[in-house]
Amino acid sequence: MTDLIKIAVDAMGGDNSPNKIIDGVIHNHKLNKSVFYKIFGDQTKIQNHIGDKINKEFFEIIHTTDLVKSTDSPLEGAKRGKNTSMWLAIESVKKKEADIVVSAGNTGALLVISKLNLKMLENIDKPALSALWPNKKGMSVVLDLGANIECSSKNLLDFSIMGASLYTSLYPNEKPNVGLLNIGSEEMKGNETIKETYQTLNDKKSENYNFSGYIEGNHLMDGNVNVIVSDGFTGNVALKTAEGTANFITGELKKAMTGTFIGKISSLLNISNLNKFKKRLDPRLYNGAIFIGLDSPVVKSHGGTDYIGFSNSLDVCHRIVKGNLIEKIKQNI
Predict the structure, then answer these.
(1) Is 176 in contact with 227 (CB distance < 8 Å)?
(2) Spatial CB neighbours of 174, under 8 Å, sequence gap ≥ 6
(3) Alpha-carbon distance 197 to 199, whole Å?
(4) Which end of the chain is more exposed for a tag (fewer CB within 10 A), N or C?
């Protein structure tokens, strides 16, 4: 089974672990037989839950009862030592025993422990947290989403290259359009850092992506730009705003469709369209933030997602490794 992609799984992170994590692994295995899962956590709990649902040639359990708590600060999580499920999972990638690591655990601790174990890619100054967002035409890669509050123009240029590399790893038949998130679309808008980045990207022609200039927040979902670059402060605010807006819309629509008799009749008549709408905004389908800039990719699953969401983060892992993300970044940088 040496040709299988090896994913290191922190089974003890996130809500309702390890059961939710293992259910996600089982679900992912049903859809994809080209992955080997290295599962880190409490062997008794994991084995009891996994049972005979996956053939033993497709997984291995590395036992530890130590774990990083969701309430830990990033430093506290790192100080818990080298025997936590999160540390061991990341370390297995460092030792080349796995191709990629995924955890639904403490985000801050995951970033700190990753940086302690893994080296930065050559010529990259800061790693970035990126994620997939839906748009009218498909999907966009957005970065940085909170790993770096302040960024230089060099950082934003690196994020553009890494984001474009990530997009082509996930969607190998498409050439991405890169845009800088800004307060306006005119060249003179924005602070000095973003204007300097604009000039560099505009002058620097690349075979790997097209530069589309600035993009404003109200056009993020249009789909004309599919790699959106920002500093971590602005990107995180945009992410939380988009998530809150999506939750508000789906909540209000549900109330409107179930609050009155006419609403209930209308919802029955439009059940197919409503299901399509619900699926389009289902956050589980876009689960899996990617920490890039290190010499191995690290995927962060949302701690509150269910097993379907975690299974989707495993799918993101598979596509990243299959798409040779790290090699693409090295070539493009």
Answers:
(1) yes
(2) 167, 168, 226
(3) 5
(4) N
pLDDT digits (tens, 9 = 90+) for 255-313: 766 766 665 666 565 666 556 655 655 556 666 789 999 999 899 998 888 899 999 99
C-alpha 232/C-alpha 146 separation (Å) is: 4
Residue for token pair 């191709």: 99
Q: Which domains does the chain have, with CATH numbers?
A: 1-124+293-333 (3.40.718.10), 126-288 (3.40.718.10)
The tens digit of pLDDT for each residue in 97-156 reads 999 999 999 989 999 999 999 999 999 989 999 988 888 888 899 998 888 889 999 999
By the 8 A CB rule, do 147 and 231 touch? Answer: no
Using only C-alpha atoms, what is the Rg of the chain? 21
Instruction: Name, in order, each residue with C-beta under 8 angstroms of 234's C-beta and a sequence gap of 6 or more.
Output: 181
Count other C-beta atoms under 10 Å from residue 68's C-beta: 28
Separation CA 257–CA 142 (nearest Å): 33
What is the Cα–Cα distance from 193 to 182, expressed in whole angstroms? 11
| Alpha-carbon distance values, 203 to 1, 61, 181 (Å) | 47, 51, 18
H or E element at residue 117: helix 107-117
* Measured distance CA(128)–CA(204) in Å, rounded: 21
Between CA 284 and CA 312 the distance in angstroms is: 7
Q: What integer best gives the mean pLDDT of the chain?
A: 87
